Amino acid sequence: MASKSFATLTDQIGRTAPNVIVRRVIYFQDQSDEVLAALAAVAVCLQYPAAVMILMQDEPATSLYYVEKGEVKISRLLRDGREHVFHIVRAGETFNDVAALDGGLNPATAITRTDVVVWRISRCDLQRLTSLYPSLAWALIESIARRARHLVGVVENLAGRNVRGRLAHLLLAEARRYETTAVPRMLTQEEMASRLGTVREMVGRALRGLAADGIIKFDRHRIMILDSDRLEKEAEV
Fold it and tell me: What are the backbone angles phi and psi of residue 108, rounded to the nearest 5°?
């Protein structure tokens, strides 16, 4: 797999202590120092440059990954050749949870969007540690529940909104993530289309429509939200 030739083991000398990094994972934050130390002891730190495949869909790789720095795109290639993007994983978030827990094939492909630093914990180590620490097992169960809730939202978004509504929902979500009304244009129109289940031309048309109606405007590498209330109403359509 391409990722094997690009992955670099990271020198941990002078770096932030691994147990501190593990605590940054959203659903590990409430774990005891003992549990965090046990996780850190089995975690392997890897670096990847941008645009490199870490995992490929439908291949075996039963490890849990969490991101320290950078962004990873989680997607799946559909039968008609189009890519559907499920999620962009950022620092403090995990991916490949499903395969790590059920031992099956990767449900999605993971590709780096930027240079990244990720930590990998094998399924075997997770099995051993969850048998020792029940609180860790419950945290992993909660992570899968959150993932399921997210996917329900994805299905609702695809089935219940037109392209303009889906785009409005995406812009609002990105604005909340960055806590700003100036959304960085880190997603290309092609990537937006992959996340919204449509084609680039439809995204471009929806963007121009929102701009023509005075709801957003383009400012170099940002999309400025001019009227959040109207964008909220568009997202409800």
Answer: -150, 170
* Average pLDDT over every residue of 2-25: 62
Q: Coil, strand, or helix at residue 115?
A: coil
Mean pLDDT value across residues 11-24: 66
pLDDT tens figures, 147-202: 888 777 777 767 678 899 989 988 998 888 777 777 766 567 888 888 888 888 99
CB-based contacts of 59, cutoff 8 Å, min separation 6: 1, 105, 106
Instruction: Tell me, rounded to whole angstroms, the distance of Cα 141 from its chain centroid.
Output: 18
Domains of the chain, CATH where assigned = 2-150 (2.60.120.10), 161-235 (1.10.10.10)
Two tokens, residue 48: 């990847």
Quick one: which of 1, 52, 42 has its CA closest to 19? 42
Residue with tokens 């094997």: 4
Cα dihedral 52/56/57/58 (nearest 10): 180
- Return d(Cα 148, Cα 202) in angstroms, integer: 28
> Is the separation of the CB atoms in 77 and 106 below 8 Å?
no
